[in-house]
Amino acid sequence: MYIPLSAGETATLKAKWEAEGRPDFKQFAQYANYCGRVFALYFLGVTAGLVLTGKKHKTLIDIVYFHYLPFVQIFCSGDKFHRDHFHYFAREDQRFIWGPNLKEDLKQIVAYRKSLCREDRLKYDKELGSYPHFLLNSVTREMWERYCRPWTPVSGNRAIGKSDEFLSQKSGC
């Protein structure tokens, strides 16, 4: 799985590589190097019989999803292949969330929010905005605290409770 380059594109890349002092491939083309590592592990696994490739297996598709990994902090999947192989490609600052756990966590958040009366929901939205509820053992909350801007008293939606007239004046509508 590669994208063939034209002669002009190849010449441009070679000139750039030479202009940068002919660095190692890992330094010059970090993402291409990463993708090569992903496919190398896949093909080694296939060759060793550790990665199954029969008609009912979708491991090649699964491995391609790891190409997104350099661009995310959290990788969520309900696929056992992703769960079992994530650690081979992840940086130390990245986390894997098992998809069924996240789904259950989000159900609990929705249930909690639905249990609030309208006034309490408005109060919560005003004070906390999009920050997740303070539910114990919430994977959503844990990841939010790890990767997002910390909550402060002015983090909520300050437009809650303002009149439509006030909001239209502020927005210029």
Keywords:
single chain; 56% helix; 9 helices; 173 residues; mainly alpha; 2 strands; two-stranded parallel ribbon
Could you describe the 3D structure shown?
With 173 residues, the protein is mostly helical. The protein has 9 helices and 2 strands. It has helices at residues 7-19, 25-28, 30-47, 59-65, 80-89, 99-115, 118-128, 139-147, 164-171, and strands at 74-77, 95-98. Strand 1 (74-77), helix 5 (80-89) and strand 2 form a beta-alpha-beta unit. It is extended, with a radius of gyration of 24 Å. The mean pLDDT is 85.
Order of helices and strands: HHHHEHEHHHH
> Mean of the pLDDT scores?
85
Count of folded domains: 2
Shape: extended
Q: Reading side by side through the largest sheet, how are the strands ordered?
A: 1-2
The number of distinct β-strands equals 2
Secondary-structure-derived class: mainly alpha
| Strand residue percentage | under 5%
Number of helical segments with 4 or more residues: 9
What can be said about the biggest beta sheet? Answer: 2 strands, parallel
